[in-house]
Amino acid sequence: MREELASVAAQREAHEAQQLIDDFIAQARRAGIEPEPLRVHLSGGGTARTDRFGWYIKVDQTVAIGSDGGYYVLSMPGGLQERLSGVRLVATQPALQVSLGGRDGESGDLADFLTRRLRH
Questions:
Q1: 74-110 pLDDT tens trace
Q2: According to the 3-state scheme, what is the secondary structure of the chain?
Q3: From residue 94, how far is each of 20, 26, 55, 120 by CA, in Å?
Q4: Which tens digits make up the pLDDT trace of 16-74?
Q5: Burial of 56 (0-12, 13-18, 19+ CB in 10 A)
Q6: What is the pLDDT of residue 9?
């Protein structure tokens, strides 16, 4: 029962977050803020190109909104092979909090990150 309630709450939150993301994409396009090629940060050092375009919403470029409406966390295991061949990104379920519990010191409301990105 508890797991089912948590699942329903997570789905509701993801739906709400997706609405914020969809609104962000529409506003970014209206404002002429073009998506850029997304890169992923690799645990072995460096970055790798990906198959997606979007808008970075964190200063350290570890979270982005894809032009396809996906929510992407841009850090993953990898090294030389990924740097050479690139990475296929898979969207994660969006949440209303960005980097909740993260150690990078930059966490907060998704709406705030999206608003900040529209201003820059």
A1: 999 988 888 888 999 999 999 999 987 666 557 899 9
A2: CHHHHHHHHHHHHHHHHHHHHHHHHHHHHHCCCCCEEEEEEECCCCEEEEEEEEEECCCCCCEEEECCCCEEECEECCCHHHHHHCECCCCECCCCEECCCCCCCCCEEHHHHHHHHHHC
A3: 10, 17, 15, 22
A4: 999 999 999 999 999 999 999 999 999 988 999 999 999 999 999 999 999 999 999 99
A5: buried
A6: 84
The values of phi and psi at residue 52, to 5°, are: -125, 155
Question: For residue 92, what are the domain limits?
Answer: 2-119
Give the Cα separation of 26 and 29 in Å (integer).
Answer: 5
Question: How many domains, the chain?
Answer: 1
For residues 89 and 50, the answer to whether their CB atoms sit within 8 Å is yes
Based on its alpha-carbon atoms, the radius of gyration of the chain, rounded to whole angstroms, reads 15
